[in-house]
Specification:
heterodimer; A: alpha/beta; Rossmann fold; 7-stranded mixed beta sheet; 6-stranded mixed beta sheet; 17 helices; globular; B: mainly alpha; ABC transporter involved in vitamin B12 uptake, BtuC; 13 helices
Chain lengths: 498, 309
């Protein structure tokens, strides 16, 4: 049976913006539709309307030419519309099967058979009896997909599904999605990644600032043309000038760095050795959960180590805490912006001050020098083009891109000699990613160094002079980036070091 | 030396009897905590159960009414906690503490006229069989609450592991946001769990004032509510381990009493502290498995649930 979904004159306004401005779209089963747009373009609002989470101010939705009233996700599910959210909606401590049973009224036995059929049919490699917290991100997503498939959906909405997946997992996801599409499920795929549109989708609808800009066949589009539509201007491509001759001015040296964790959910770090010279960017690739976070914490001083295992500018610093390391002009940008790098409930200037709470400039005699901190924060906001001038704004109200600009700015305003960053562009929109990349290149141009731990291989190839991979807490040999192919790096990330 | 089997049987029976209120209150609280609610008012609910049970017994002379009356009183006072934390969104910890203080005060006030009155005889089961050597005093001649207490943890274990309702309780305790996404009425589930916990604490109190020491003494719960709370945590939210812990606590309490009576030359204060120390120690040791702890701990325990609009 063919499914058709028609979105007619949908509008939704929020106090500060028009999230959806008179959107018209017609979709038919058998195809995968991309809904492309930057963060804040209104695509999430649109699909939330389709799934009944948000009610539109104006406009109608028709499913198979019948008008559809969606007051809650329950109504959507009843009409066989399913959605996989960007952030997993799973009970971590319950087993896979328990998670799936909860959502269904079918008796356990027949449901279990049905689930097993789905798993076999699509080659999902999932044990129904493991607790969800032991699964990888890709597996968790499969559980979410199974939860949708149990209901035999006609429409499947995927909200930025690859933001937490590795390349391999992404490939597997695409294979499954293509199968679903062949079986007649209408798939709406929300993304801001252009490459994914090209490889996966049949048609693409581009949104910008709440408006639908274009609908076209993917076969008629190229990455550049889509990018221009999406950001409304020509995409500048950042390119790094690589130094021809290697600088030999060593800045930091890691010698036999080891860490054995008492926590079974952490990765042990084993015999890590590398060095970074001035003006260089060392990229550390790896699939998430291979010890990157532990390595970052050791480099930043959250986990201390033997004093001689980290030598910075000929001084051993392994035993120093982050604040002490900052005095040596080392700066850090952690992966998790909201829980690790900032306190979302505090204001911008307070977050800026927290980074530097020993500064006698900011604090005198136990009192806070608010004026100074605010001026300092203002400088960061201007210099790093954060899209607000209000230093009193709580950081939770900043978009991911603006928050990251603020956090990186907070680090760079002291012009450090070494910046250690971990997934600096994770989950950001194209504009912000571009900005961060340019900023990082600028640092190298000023003869300062970067250690870039990232799960995004494209980013690593673009920014790093030298590259290596981390696997299960071990690090591969360090190569010149120009000597390494994507395939080679993939093997290194998989742990095939020789 | 001649070992008197009958004497040992009587001691074991005494141990079991002393652990009944702990088992009841702790297992009830376990359900509450599994749904993500931390009710520190157990002590207050027990003492309210104790006075209500005793009062109902004295005025109606019906054990059935007394028991259900105590449970009902437990539910009512737990509903105060439920209304405050679930509807008015107060924080769990201070609300629970206030509930305990409130319960102790109210029970003392209500109990004014009952102080010093002798309690009524409570029917026991298989009375004439308790002359059998050893197993007689252990198995026979006990009240209905006693038997219930020793079946109850198995019941709760089965409920949590095998039934859909139990699964829903665990799910709500794991993440109230996800549960809401899945169409579960989080607040309703939590209200029901809180009421269940109240009923069980009330029953524990009834056991104290009707069976264990059949009279009303002010503050007669004497900290059992707190021990029950500790048992739940150290048993890592597993009802069977709660049973083990409660029995252990009971046996060491009884044993140290006998040691005191026998004049063992260990400071009395140390002996009195033994049950607390050893119970916690043993439970920590038998629960030493990080993975299991992580799986059993309700993720949203004690967190206030703000529903998104």
């Amino acid at each position: 049976m063919e499914t058709s979904l028609k979105i007619s004159n949908i509008s939704k306004a929020y106090p500060d913006c028009l999230a959806n401005d008179n959107i018209n779209l017609e979709l038919k089963s058998g195809k995968i539709y991309a809904l492309l747009g930057e963060n804040g373009a209104g695509k999430s609002t649109l699909v939330k309307i389709l799934f009944g989470i948000i009610q539109p101010d104006k406009g109608k939705i028709f499913l198979n030419n019948q008008i559809l009233k969606l007051n809650s996700p329950r109504d959507a599910k009843k009409n066989k519309i399913s959605m996989v959210f960007q952030h997993f909606s799973l009970f971590e401590t319950l087993s896979v099967l328990e998670n799936l049973i909860l959502d269904s009224s079918e008796p356990k036995k027949s449901l279990e058979n049905k689930i097993q059929d789905i798993i076999n049919k699509y080659n999902f490699n999932i044990d129904l009896y493991t607790p969800v917290l032991n699964l990888s991100a890709g597996q968790k997503q499969k559980v979410e997909i199974i939860r949708c498939l149990i209901k035999n959906p006609d429409v499947l909405i995927m909200d930025e599904p690859t933001s937490v997946l590795t390349e391999q997992e992404t490939k597997e996801l695409f294979i499954s999605l293509k199968k679903f599409s062949k079986e007649g499920i209408l798939i709406i795929y929300i993304t801001h990644k252009l490459k994914e549109v090209i490889t996966l989708c049949d048609e693409v609808a581009v949104m910008r600032k709440g408006k639908l800009i274009s609908i076209s066949k993917v076969s008629n589009e190229k990455i550049e043309s889509l990018a221009n539509k999406m950001i409304g201007q020509n995409l500048k491509i950042v390119r790094k000038k690589r130094l021809e001759e290697k600088s030999n001015d060593q800045l930091i040296k890691i010698v036999n760095l080891n860490y054995k964790s008492a926590n079974p959910f952490e990765v042990n770090i084993k015999d890590i050795n590398f060095e970074v010279n001035r003006g260089e960017c060392l990229g550390i690739a790896g699939i998430s959960g291979n010890g990157q976070s532990e390595l970052f914490q050791m480099l930043s001083g959250e986990i201390t180590s033997e004093n001689n295992s980290i030598v910075f500018d000929n001084r051993p610093i392994g035993k120093l805490n982050p604040q002490e390391r900052r005095k040596y002009l080392i700066a850090f940008s952690p992966e998790d912006r909201l829980t690790h790098a900032s306190i979302p409930q505090m204001k911008i200037f307070e977050n800026v001050a927290l980074n530097n709470f020993k500064s006698s400039d900011f604090f005198k005699g136990g009192l806070i020098n608010e004026k100074k901190i605010k001026d300092h924060s203002q400088r960061i906001l201007t210099k790093f083009s954060v899209n607000t001038e209000n230093v009193e704004l709580k950081t939770q109200f900043l978009s991911g891109g603006n928050l990251q600009k603020l956090l990186i700015g907070r680090e760079l305003i002291t012009s450090p000699n070494l910046l250690i960053c971990f997934n600096p562009t994770w989950g950001l929109d194209v504009g912000a990613i571009h900005y961060i990349h340019e900023t990082l290149i600028k640092i190298n141009d000023q003869n300062k160094s970067i250690i870039l731990i990232s799960t995004d291989t494209e980013e690593l190839f673009m920014l790093s002079d030298k590259i290596c991979a981390i696997n299960k807490g071990r690090i591969s040999k360090v190569f010149k980036t120009t000597d390494v192919s994507t395939e080679k790096l993939g093997l290194l990330m998989g742990g095939q070091f020789d | 030396m001649n070992i008197d089997l009958n004497f040992i049987g009587i001691i074991i029976a005494a141990v079991m009897a002393s652990s009944v209120p702990l088992i009841l209150a702790a297992t009830g609280e376990l359900i509450v905590e599994r749904s993500g609610v931390l009710n520190l008012g157990v002590e207050g609910m027990i003492i309210i159960g104790a006075i209500s049970g005793f009062a109902f017994m004295m005025s109606t002379e019906s054990i059935v009414i007394a028991i259900f009356g105590a449970m009902f009183a437990g539910i009512i006072i737990s509903l105060i906690f439920g209304f405050l934390t679930q509807t008015l969104l107060t924080l769990h910890v201070p609300t629970g503490l206030a509930l305990t203080i409130f319960g102790i005060g109210v029970s003392a006030m209500l109990g004014k006229n009952f102080v010093g009155l002798p309690g009524k005889e409570i029917p026991v089961f298989f009375e004439n069989l308790d002359k059998i050597t050893f197993i007689g005093p252990i198995l026979f001649g006990h009240s209905i609450i006693f038997y219930f207490a020793f079946v109850f943890p198995f019941f709760v274990y089965y409920f949590l592991k095998k039934t859909k309702m139990g699964l829903i309780v665990r799910a709500v305790g794991d993440s109230h946001h996800v549960a809401t996404d899945q169409g579960i009425n989080v607040i309703l589930v939590r209200y029901l769990c809180i009421m269940f916990g109240g009923a069980m604490s009330g029953l524990a109190g009834a056991y104290l004032s009707l069976v264990y020491t059949p009279q009303w003494i002010e503050n007669m719960s004497s900290g059992r509510g707190w021990i029950a709370l500790a048992l739940v945590v150290f048993a890592t939210w597993n009802p069977l381990k709660v049973l083990v812990g409660a029995l252990l606590f009971g046996s060491i309490s009884i044993l140290q009493l006998h040691m005191q009576a026998a004049g063992v030359r260990i400071p009395v204060q140390f002996l009195s502290a033994l049950p607390y120390l050893l119970t916690i120690l043993v439970l920590v040791v038998i629960s030493r498995d990080d993975r299991k702890i992580k799986l059993n701990t309700p993720n949203s325990l004690g967190k206030t649930f703000y529903k998104e609009n």
